[in-house]
Amino acid sequence: MNSSVSRVSQEPAELANKYQAVNADEIDLRELFGVIWKGKLLIISVTIFFAVCSVIFAIMQPNIYRSEALLAPAAEEQGGGGLAALAGQFGGLASMAGINLGGGGSDKTQLAIEVMKSRQFASDFIQRHDLLSDLMAAEKWHIGDNSITYDDDMYEASTGKWIRDVNAPFKPEPSMQEAFKEFKKVVSVNSSKDTGMVTVAVEHLAPAVAKQWVEWLVLDINTVMKERDVAEAKRSTAFLRSQIQQTNVADIRSILYKLVEEQAKTIMFAEVRDEYVFKTIDPAIVPEEKAKPKRALICALGTVLGGMLAVMFVLIRHFIRKE
């Protein structure tokens, strides 16, 4: 009997101890608010410091302007291109002659987009139009005289000499590999899956430069694709003529003559048309409003980040001292 009474009397004591242990491990919200209130001066000071720094950082960032052009694929109007035009009717006989009949205009449009994103096209584009200084060393645009100030530590505008201090294997003048990395950041080429339209956009601190680059990009890709097709058509014509001389089969000779005619049409089409792959629907303009930076967002995020870090520091310091 006595043992039963003692056991019953011990159970409330054990429950009380467990309850106190659980409460000790739980976080008291009143304690948290009290700690934050005690450290309010530090929190306010750190938040103000981060806010001021974010404002200074946002003000120091140059305005970036975005110019873009809307393009429509023009390759489909060629009727599928030279060799593809006879694919349905003479595919089998053409294969006997060793001729590969190619694809249509949509493939050519996608190829043109990938060419514009390639390292080779970017390198040729930069060198052809002498864009290296505007791409790599431009620091500020002056709206008054529409001029650009360059980074004095990288480039001497008066002499056109690169003076940046870099370690080997890099040289004072940026390589095309370095230029391509920057090129990808400021140039974008996107195709809409719904409409098939292509948007070419350039971001730069000088709005006139952004517009000019877009126009050059559209002009150059049309020229490059035109030259590719003309060169391929001439090679195909030479091959077809050699095959005509080597065969006496009337049906095959007839097919080969038709293919030569298609190559002549391809060359003629390329020579008489400037907008060979892309037709400009909405041309690029000089933007009047900046695209970035979002200064208000930068200031807001900087202030919030400062406040969060300050609160975390105050709480961590309190619990470290408490232990």
From TrEMBL:
<keyword id="KW-0472">Membrane</keyword>
<dbReference type="Pfam" id="PF02706">
    <property type="entry name" value="Wzz"/>
</dbReference>
<feature type="transmembrane region" description="Helical">
    <location>
        <begin position="297"/>
        <end position="320"/>
    </location>
</feature>
<keyword id="KW-1003">Cell membrane</keyword>
<dbReference type="GO" id="GO:0005886">
    <property type="term" value="C:plasma membrane"/>
</dbReference>
<dbReference type="InterPro" id="IPR003856">
    <property type="entry name" value="LPS_length_determ_N"/>
</dbReference>
<keyword id="KW-1133">Transmembrane helix</keyword>
<dbReference type="GO" id="GO:0004713">
    <property type="term" value="F:protein tyrosine kinase activity"/>
</dbReference>
<protein>
    <submittedName>
        <fullName>LPS biosynthesis protein</fullName>
    </submittedName>
</protein>
<feature type="domain" description="Tyrosine-protein kinase G-rich">
    <location>
        <begin position="279"/>
        <end position="318"/>
    </location>
</feature>
<dbReference type="InterPro" id="IPR050445">
    <property type="entry name" value="Bact_polysacc_biosynth/exp"/>
</dbReference>
<keyword id="KW-0812">Transmembrane</keyword>
<feature type="domain" description="Polysaccharide chain length determinant N-terminal">
    <location>
        <begin position="25"/>
        <end position="127"/>
    </location>
</feature>
<feature type="transmembrane region" description="Helical">
    <location>
        <begin position="41"/>
        <end position="60"/>
    </location>
</feature>
<dbReference type="Pfam" id="PF13807">
    <property type="entry name" value="GNVR"/>
</dbReference>
<dbReference type="InterPro" id="IPR032807">
    <property type="entry name" value="GNVR"/>
</dbReference>
